[in-house]
Design goal:
Elements (H helix, E strand, L loop, with lengths): L2 H22 L6 H8 L5 H6 L2 H32 L3 H11 L1
Length: 98
């Protein structure tokens, strides 16, 4: 099986698991239900993730990457503002050095 097809199948399975968790909660996720919703064989989730813990780990990792990407612009702006000396910070430095 080629890599693009495998990645697509993995994505289908992961999307199905996320959909189940979003609508019914994570406790309802079963490998068989994930496969049914994804429209794949009942073995596909096991092949790509091993077990429920593997699916939860993949969802967690994906969420973590998403939030890191979302926070980077805010971090960049905050760092720029911190790195830029302000009148207040310059006056504090002057007061301390006197």
């Amino acid at each position: 099986m080629n890599s693009a097809k495998t990645d697509g199948l993995r994505r289908q399975v992961l999307d199905a698991a996320v959909a189940i968790a979003a609508t019914s909660g994570p406790d309802v996720i079963s490998m068989r239900e994930v496969a049914r919703l994804a429209g794949v064989s009942h073995q596909a989730p096991y092949h790509h993730f091993g077990d429920r813990a593997g699916i939860f780990a993949a969802i967690s990792e994906e969420g973590s990457v998403y939030w890191q990407r979302q926070s980077k612009p805010a971090q960049h702006v905050a760092l720029q503002q911190c790195a830029r000396p302000t009148f207040t910070s310059l006056s504090l430095i002057k007061d301390i050095s006197e």
